[in-house]
Amino acid sequence: MSPIRSCALFLGALLAAVPAWAGVFDPATFTLSNGMQVVVISNRRVPIVSHMVWYKVGAADENPGKSGIAHLLEHLMFKGTPAIPPGEFSKIVARNGGRDNAFTSSDYTGYYQNVAADKLELVMRMEADRMTNLVLGEADFRTERDVVLEERRSRTDNNPAALLGEQMEAALYLNSPYRRPIIGWPDEIAALTLYDALAFYRRWYAPNNAILVVAGDVTAETVRPLAEKYYGGIPRADTPPRARTEEPPHRAERRVTLKDGRVAQPSWSRLYLAPSLGGGARELAYPLEVLADLVGGGATSRLYRSLVVDKGAAAAASAAYDPVAVGQTTFRVAAVPRPGVPLDKLETLIEQELARILKDGFTAEEIERAKARLRASAAYGRDSLHTGAQTLGQALASGVSVEEVESWPERIEAVTPEQVAKAAAALFKPASSVTGLLLPDPAAVPPPGRAAPPPPGRPTKGVH
Amino acid sequence: MLGRIAVLLGLLLFSLPAAAVTVEKVTSASGIEAWLVRDHSNPIIAMEVAFRGGAAHDPAAKSGLAGMMAALLDEGAGPHDSQAFQQILEDKVISLGFNAGRDSFAGHLKTLSENKDTAFDLFRLALSQPRFDKEPVERIRGQLLAGLMRESQDPNAQASRRFFEVAFAGHAYARSPRGTLESVKAIQVADLRALAKAQLIRDRLVVGVVGDISPEELARRLDAVFGALPASGPLGVIPDVDAAPPAGLAVIPKDNPQTLALFGLPGLRRNDPDWYAAYVVNYVLGGGGFSSRLTEEVREKRGLAYSVTSYLMPFAHSGLIVGSVATENSRFPESVRLIKEEFRRMQGEGPSEKELADAKTYLNGSFPLSQDSTAAIAGLLVQMQVDKLGIDFLDRRAAMISAVSLEDARRAARRLLDPDALSFVAVGKPAQ
Questions:
Q1: ipTM computed for the complex
Q2: Do A106 and A166 fall within a single domain?
Q3: Is residue A241 part of a domain?
Q4: Do A104 and B299 touch (CB under 8 A)?
Q5: CA of B164: how far to CAs of B75, B151, B173, B234, B271, in Å?
Q6: What global pTM score does this model have?
Q7: CB–CB contact B4 A157 (8 Å)
Q8: Residues linked to residue A439 through DSSP beta bridges, in sequence order
Q9: What average pLDDT values come out for chain A (464 residues) when binned by 10 residues?
Q10: Which domains does chain B have, with CATH numbers?
């Protein structure tokens, strides 16, 4: 799982189910008396269920100075309650033949267990228990904070490309909390306290701020009594509204260059500030999905065809956009040069291609093809039990309704060439972008033995 | 999105409930065989295939050849040049691709039922009439080279490459299936054409299909898709080899704040009589996520790593037990010490009765969980054939795991988990 903002899952790529049936996932939904939303997606192929609880809180809801607390709390949620001793949660799930995990994004935090259908009640009881009964000790807290610091080193500090990505987001967002890395800044993680974790937990973890998603060999009729029994009795809390500072007008294009002795392969990327379904000009969200597909969605996209195939300047070129977010989000364009092609030349070629898109737009046929592709891709979503659970959970936790997800194919179908042109014009503004260059550091002295591994058969240096 | 656990579990190759599916053997008129699981719940068909052979057969000076061919089979075939081929795939939302492992060359296809004629025909063309036009050849070469450059930034990939180099010194397994900058540059179109003729042979083919298709139709499609391939052909010999990773710690210096290490020992081939005993033991040692001893000691008790794991890695001609850990440079030696200690403890005592029982419960109970998609099941059908597990494997698997006794587990642990033989390849600046 990669540490990118608002999740590595793109609504378009994930959406399931052909328009042959009414909706996309055809979920059943209801709300408990304490305000907890429930989504049930029946998929009877195998006698298993995926049980997920999504909290409408993420790294973007942290107080300044406390970056990383949403994610650290996610780890600490496995540290026990009066009923479940520290460290036992996952072991109990495993002893019942299940797998569990959790994840944190800017806008949401999720917990899930995949189990045989007859274990649903067990995991629901445990998940409901830790919604209000978490008990944390100082020793467990400190150990887990160390684990998270190691996680940060693995994901980010050991990885120059990830370090650059972090710098780019901090440079793009002037005021949005999305400027902070989800995992947190290292010094702030190290200074987080047990009190911070418990305060965040009490502030945000409540049934009225959570969504239950159950997918698999279940029906709404079987889930409802269990949900009422285990979650329904948890009192509603006075959860604050999600206060999000938004972006002021962007007036200056930004460039971020990371030179690092560990870099061997240079790369180029750019983030444009983009509206989402939750923030900014939301009517542009679906046209932007179509635009992302046309610009850099695959092997026949404009950037790939031009830079990678025709001009032979890039090894890779892509565009990515995920419309599901609470606030304004990013549209990412990226390219990797072929050996010997400098980044400034690559950037010029990308600029030319984007300028051509702005000037000439796309043909009606190109747009129809992209739309047909996107809609057809939805047909695969029902192939996997988890796609619907992920997509609906992410959407609801980000303030996007079930109806919106279910009507995704029609909303894509309704996108017009004029809307795509308007979205491109609104998007591709240098002043609301950051360009990131990842470069080797010629001044860095490579440590001995780093560049060339020894040929097979020769003993390795340093074996003792 | 940040996850709590990067690698939840080690090698859980098989996850399919015996009760949930029926595997049928389908044989075409010309004798091509496939294993099929019919599933009409969605209008989707997934096919996975493998040809025995693979990157281990690459010439040393052209290592990466099979991988380069894999990347090029969908870049133009028959009447379609690269862009035309890709355009059809995109317009029909067909997923089609190939991949070269050390022991086999794999292909996959996934299509909506309404596009199946096109999908199977493109698969046929990719296998039997690849074009290897100059533009895609040079483009893919550029991508492979960029990938190798990027790989040299990745501690995990660096450590893995070195581990195989030293564990299999002098053997084909020492070479990365991705080759080297030099070897990928040396590959010619003639090499690719020759390999396609030599590798894509019917008597090395296994096929797994899942989804919205009848046995009768599949039989016809098998002949249509694979009928044009040569029925048989010579295959180079890869000798069996005992992995011999050198004991001790080798360091690849890198200016990272955290040291990543792969560690390992000689392991088992898939057909070893101790396979299931070792599988269960490894779950307890390092394969079981938060239930494993390594995670308990290294992560949960001391916060020394985000992920510490071990898994069995079987090959056609050898086997490894491999694990990984990443710890801040100054504390790295403590992780090494703890890992050795846990190998020592497991080798000496084996798992407890309770650990053994819990492991069996998990390994059997979690079996259905990965049966999450048609492609996953099709991949399982292929693996079952490659590993010669038998078409009734799904019905027998639970019993084989349940049959592992405490004595079996102790024997496997004694045989395999010698702490003093552990080989560590570390990337970083570890404290001494």
A1: 0.93
A2: yes
A3: no
A4: no
A5: 30, 15, 7, 27, 21
A6: 0.92
A7: no
A8: A259
A9: 30 34 83 98 90 98 97 97 96 96 97 96 98 97 98 97 98 97 98 98 98 97 98 97 91 98 96 96 97 95 96 96 96 96 98 97 95 89 90 96 95 96 98 98 62 32 30
A10: 24-226 (3.30.830.10), 248-369+391-428 (3.30.830.10)
